[in-house]
Design goal:
This protein has two domains: about 5-20 and about 230-425, Alpha-beta prism (UDP-n-acetylglucosamine1-carboxyvinyl-transferase, Chain); about 25-230, Alpha-beta prism (UDP-n-acetylglucosamine1-carboxyvinyl-transferase, Chain), CATH 3.65.10. Helix content is about 30%, strand content about 25%. It is built from 14 helices and 23 strands. Strands 2-15-17-16 form a four-stranded mixed beta sheet. It has a four-stranded mixed beta sheet with strand order 4-5-3-14, with helices on one face. The radius of gyration is 21 Å and the shape is globular. About 55% of the residues are buried. The model has no long low-confidence stretch (mean pLDDT about 95). It binds shikimate-3-phosphate (S3P). Shikimate-3-phosphate binds near residues 24, 168, 169 and 315.
Amino acid sequence: MSEKLLESKQTVIKGELQVPGDKSISHRSIIFGSLAQGKTVVTNFLDGEDCMRTIAAFQAMGVSIEKHGQTVVIEGNGVENLQEPIEPINLGNSGTTARLLLGVLAGLPHHFTLFGDESLTNRPMDRVVIPLRQMGAMIDGRENGKYLPLAMRGGNLSSIAFETPVKSAQVKSGVLLAGLLAEGETTVTEKTTTRDHTENMLQAFGGKIDTNNGKISITGKQQLQGTEIHVPGDISSAAFFLVASTIVSGSELTIKDVGLNPTRTGIIDVLKQMDVDITVVEERTIGGEPVGSITVRSSTPKGIIIDGEIIPRIIDEIPIIALLATQANGKTIIRDAEELRYKESDRIASVVNTLQALGADIEATKDGMIIHGNRTLSGGKVDSYGDHRIGMMIAIASLITEQAVTLVNPACISISYPSFFEHLKKVSR
Ligand code: S3P
């Protein structure tokens, strides 16, 4: 396993940064571009490993997808022309590819086999398999289809009215995509709002979808038209640098052109509640998604309670928020976040174990964690658990540790942020 030595206390964080394109939006641009008729051009596409899995899956179904740097050109031929892949589809580490693709494949009259890496193989798929079976897809797999590998035969779907038992945009999106390929009107009801990029992007491709009080309705068999998509910067990637410039004293950083979709901006709300010096400027709309620039100056945060409705809006940012909380005045409590247990690692366990190993005062609870602030972090050898967001949290922690940090398995960071270390170097003075 490779290791990376991270020297401690070398820097302040200064200047301007443009983070790579949003992971969720990049996945969806490939999916809708492949379902649509005609050419789709995607700019500022995230070329992380996860999004490349989505590209490979649709290429295996005969879609022409060409990538030149961060620009992707998709020649869509419509749903009817998606072909049966010859080989099993490798989903790698990507939960989004898995859950969203399952929804699409459920609507196609072909046979598919799907597998992933060790992490993905242990993440629950039944949350989407169960509603897709109700719609008529035939799906089987390990432990009765709870886990990958899965085999399935899709086609001839009927619509359903589905209430999501889990707070998951992936599940919502999987069912909505199947609904797009089914007969009749499918509705998904969610008790807590999750990211709505699927709904937004469907409309960008000329589709119709209605949202009313947590009830999302989609009529099947709509014809989508190829379009141009500009992917905004990923706020989940920006979060690592927002926290870095908060905790490293003397820092001031502006991150330009970050996606500010309200279903994703919980990190900004949390930082404001913690009294972090943060401002958002140049707000505007590009391609249906709000974007803006965020400036953070170093400051001492205060501990807060984080729970309820905000959790899906910060679900990927909790590891880096936990690091921030170790530096806050007072105690931070994170609750209602049991979903963290089903991410690329069990993020309650991996965050708590890693920060404890670095000298933090943090304990795990059933659905979150309790973090006591004002701790000096030591250093040492810690593992990313093969989880990109844990790896980046460790790298940011090393900016304030007393001793150097050795990060075991840094390579996973390229899942969502291949240029992370390059960017860290760029803003380090
Ligand atoms: C995603 C939704 C979230 C998030 C993941 C991307 C998406 O997962 O953690 O990184 O693109 O829909 P859940 O919706 O399962 O919580």
